[in-house]
Amino acid sequence: MQRRRPPKRRNRKAELRELTIDSLGSDGEGRAGGLSVPFALPGEKVVAEVTGRRGVVRERSATSPARAQPLCPHFGLPGDGCGGCTLQHLGASLAQELKERRLLDSVRTVFPDAVLAGVHTSPPRSRRRAKFSVTVEAAGFKQLAGRRVVPLEECAVLHPDLFALLRPLRGLARSLGTGFQAEATLAANGTDLALRTEGLEVGPSELATLSAYAEEHDLARLALDGLPVSERRAPFVEFGGVPVSLPPGSFLQATDAGEKALQREVLTACKGAGRVADLFSGLGTFALPLAGGAEVIAADSEGSATDALSLAARRAGLPVTTEARDLYRRPLQAKELAVDAVVFDPPRAGAGEQAAEIAKARPGTVLAVSCNPQRLARDLRHFAATYDLTRLVLVDQFGWSPHIEGVAVLKRR
Fold first, then answer.
1. How far is Cα 211 from Cα 191, in angstroms, rounded to an integer?
2. 371 catalytically annotated
3. Which ranges of the chain have pLDDT less than 70?
4. Domains of the chain in sequence order
5. Which residues are catalytic (predicted)?
6. Does the annotation list 383 as a binding residue?
7. Does the annotation flag 280 for ligand binding?
8. How far apart are CA 45 and CA 67, in angstroms?
9. pLDDT score for 11
């Protein structure tokens, strides 16, 4: 049978339109009716190039008094400025108001009386992990809605030790004759750097170049396309004073300040619990501090993470039992959760069926950590009938982007 060819996608024609911005969307973009207009504020009148439901500001005839002067010279419009930040034009107070509203609006769909008990904001220049795009001409982040790499001359987000890598990375690309993606993490004992290329053929010359680069810039570890090139020191991090080896590609909270704020919330909520489950535990961000006063069950899909956590706990003599388990395909069942408290910190997709099993187990305390307010609300629905929301906290590790962490503490009625 002859198949019909799918219709060709027509290039949407852009048109210039005069718009009045009436509100802010949840990601901080201006809204004009049903149109999304990034970098515009309520009350502003703009001429925008509109394609579909999205507009790009080309001219601003009326400016909101709330508009702030961006901190960074690289901040700018889609296709022009750096894609690392999108909210510098809002100013600190308006940006925080936006984030608070985003978290509260989601949680109140489940707990209508929810109030925000606190906000923990990481300081500027404290981000300890980042993914850079590197070419022979530039190193930095890509444009917002563009492909060009913006060569960063300064950055209000990155930790100075990460920012210091950018110019040398561009030099490395020139030496190798190719661009690459670079994922950098500040460990407790130096920088862990992983490079990904599009099939770079590595011979003795390239290995010598990479090894010399690691030596010159005192890297703890350097990997290329998943293979170790240099490990001058085995990278590690510390949770609750316990050192944990850092497997390649492991997840860490974006800032040390944000991590410590989350740990304080977890320890306070679980105080007095004799047995705690830490689900989606990663390397033990919460499990190891909790194990100072409780027996901990930790589960995560990443076997390298649970192995590192298990070894760290054994060396420290802490009561942590680990399991490498896909909690989406095989969530811990209610009968496996005979604990006093449960902490779960899933990826952006939310906890899925695991949240339902936690609710069935009915532990006295449940603490949900989430980087996705909508999925947090979906997970919280499982607890609405039998739990009270006793504390809601916002942890802001991404000062000039709409991303947030929400912490919800639930107590069984």
1. 14
2. yes
3. 1-12, 78-79
4. 15-67 (2.40.50.140), 96-121+240-412 (3.40.50.150), 129-187+189-234 (2.40.50.1070)
5. 371
6. no
7. yes
8. 13
9. 58
